[in-house]
Amino acid sequence: xxxxxxxxxxxxxxxxxxxxxxxxxxxxxxxxxxxxxxxxxxxxxxxxxxxxxxxxxxxxxxxxxxxxxxxxxxxxxxxxxxxxxxxxxxxxxxxxxxxxxxxxxxxxxxxxxxxxxxxxxxxxxxxxxxxxxxxxxxxxxxxxxxxxxxxxxxxxxxxxxxxxxxxxxxxxxxxxxxxxxxxxxxxxxxxxxxxxxxxxxxxxxxxxxxxxxxxxxxxxxxxxxxxxxxxxxxxxxxxxxxxxxxxxxxxxxxxxxxxxxxxxxxxxxxxxxxxxxxxxxxxxxxxxxxxxxxxxxxxxxxxxxxxxxxx
Amino acid sequence: xxxxxxxxxxxxxxxxxxxxxxxxxxxxxxxxxxxxxxxxxxxxxxxxxxxxxxxxxxxxxxxxxxxxxxxxxxxxxxxxxxxxxxxxxxxxxxxxxxxxxxxxxxxxxxxxxxxxxxxxxxxxxxxxxxxxxxxxxxxxxxxxxxxxxxxxxxxxxxxxxxxxxxxxxxxxxxxxxxxxxxxxxxxxxxxxxxxxxxxxxxxxxxxxxxxxxxxxxxxxxxxxxxxxxxxxxxxxxxxxxxxxxxxxxxxxxxxxxxxxxxxxxxxxxxxxxxxxxxxxxxxxxxxxxxxxxxxxxxxxxxxxxxxxxxxxxx
Lengths: 311, 314
Prior knowledge:
- The complex is a heterodimer of chains A (311) and B (314).
- Chain A is mainly α and 311 residues long.
- Chain A folds into 2 domains: 41-89, no CATH class; 100-310, MetI-like (MetI-like fold), CATH 1.10.3720.10.
- Chain A has 16 helices and no strands.
- Chain B has 2 domains: 6-57; 81-309, MetI-like fold.
- Chain B is built from 13 helices and 2 strands.
- In chain B, strands 1-2 form a two-stranded antiparallel ribbon.
- At the A-B interface, helix 1, helix 2, helix 3, helix 6 and helix 7 of A face helix 1, helix 3, helix 4, helix 5 and helix 6 of B.
């Protein structure tokens, strides 16, 4: 329907049509461009590139400002208008590092994330396997029941979970921060989708050879879905690192608290010393940023796939 | 079942059927064993508590269970008549009303702008998506500095433009918009990536045909691309709305855990958190949570229903 609407317009927009086709289609790389044409093409794409760069930099700016502040000399911090050059005063980092037991908090965060990943991967892989390779009555029902979890907002079970953990005396432990995340429904969804896409022949051939479910899962299915396992682990890791509300609720003792909760406390205790705050925020955030920069391909794939879930 | 040797067949059939039944039973047992860890976790931490939340809201529950008394609807009537709760809902919807149009417009603009296959634009996408992976408290500090009324960059920009400075997070009027600016920075990359993957699925042939027929780039965008990615835009609208209704971390991080000034940034979830875990009114907070959950479920249902009826799918 759209092309037809455009044909009626084509006479009116004739001039534009010819220019756009010469610019877009005729100067393809097979034909060597003359230097002047290349310069014109570059000049035409320049405004877009500049706007894109400005947008990109504005997303980086708040992180960069924290870096500038953390490396400032004491006098420079309170300067108006603010400046964006680095002063390289690293001493505040050692001071901020020694004020809190950051190594312990970082260790807690990593420990909680890694154990959560281990548990969630095991439960999710087993469930996804059963939902794709084993035929049994009620399979669709169970899958719907699991997908239902994605529709239930977490506020629904927030308070009862706290009450339950208090009841079984698990408040203020690592377990309280791990167990509620013991399954990744997103993971089950992704893995099931992948398992179902595998040719049935693999499975049947393995079964005829006398390969049991666990053996097939371990030695054939899992090695093939390594990238998906990686995406799931990465999501759990970042989610666990960034989670704030639940650890705020269930922890009080410093020795089980993750780094985000400690940083929030540090922020409240030192609210006047911007340099220390910025330094602490940098060394507690850089690990996630580094992880993102190295593994963003997996994150982007996860977002693109996740979209299909609710859409 | 063949006519040749009925006796022999029936014997093997019976044996085969028994073997099949045994295999099916074993499969069902395996499936049960494989599914039970996940289902036990979900039952304990999602299914059962989601139901108990409703029950909790109808009692006066104190931690430990002593002195628990029936409350009827009183927690609900107390909540809806509580002016801070009303204000928290207003704050939350105000926040959503700022976020949804901003996200919709900016995500499409940025996605279209950087939707080019080159290293340069991939790098820009990395920068735009980077905040999405960062923690709220860790990045709040840079933003607190930007929003600082005396020394901050935000007022520096206003000053350079010859505009009046603002108190940003410290002014009741500007605090929620300031948090919205932070959240845009934090979450926009996610939506940009989603719009980019939708753009990639628009058939090139249609766009080329339209271009040959003389449609300019603006016309191609509004008449072809935008209608074709409308399901994605709708998805983003709902997901952003639901996400803003659940906002907590950005408020906590940017207001030093206060929800101030003058409750201006107290979102409903923030109030629930305070009521339950600072003041220990678990049942009262549960009633608030039930109301919030019902509102969120309402939006989820709208998505399911309207998504099927009004949005153009290919």
